[in-house]
Amino acid sequence: MVPLWLQAALWGLLAGSALVVGAAAGYLAKVPARIIAGVMSFGSGVLISALSFDLMDEAFRRGGFRAVAAGFLGGAAAYTLANVALARRGARHRKRSGTQPSEAEAPGSGLAIAVGALMDGIPESIAIGVTLLAGGGVSMAAVVAIFISNVPEGLSSSAGMKRAGRSKLYVFGVWAAIAVLSGGAAALGAAVFGDLPPQAVAATLSCAAGAMLAMIADTMVPEAFAEERNLAGFVTVAGFLAAFVLTKLGG
Length: 251
What we know:
The protein is an all-alpha fold. The chain has helices at residues 4-28, 33-91, 109-131, 140-163, 168-192, 198-227, 232-250. The protein is built from seven helices and no strands. Helix content is 82%, strand content 0%. Helix 3 (109-131) runs parallel beside helix 5 and helix 4 (140-163) runs antiparallel to helix 7.
């Protein structure tokens, strides 16, 4: 019998590995900005759907409205405050494919971008681990949604890192480390929250969902609409529908 925390770690690592896949595509190939924007739009819709119909629904079922509301707003607030602090250190456009600052232009921005990328992925990974606690296995809708959304994140950001003059070692080192830490965060979610009362688990899930939604609005949507304003809305809706169908089929 595989321990629950190890199952969570493997699922988190799988979802996080999409960042490396996207980084390879963005760094090694010349992907048109409009394609990156389209994939980012689709990933945004996928994540919004997954956190709405999977994470928030499960959180409400476990802990009710008060726990969900407190966690959701708390997660969004924590992410926003951290994002503001990192933006002042050069990580504002960490998911942009063409507007990231170089280290010469903004000293310390490389570390800020790496920390920001890690901050973007941790809530998703913790959510994967917590979904295992229901006893029915991991939420495949959440894993697939996070995997799909991670590809354009890695793709767009690594393309921007390359244009800013950052080395291949730095780019792939950042994304590989975040993939491994994503597995660790998922394991932590399964190990730490297993013995907590339902309201605490609900607050944790909704906290992750709130941070994810704030991340989508702050970093993914601007990249998507910057390059492809005409079709971005439709592609986002298509991503939302795809994840919604996946959620219902999995249920």
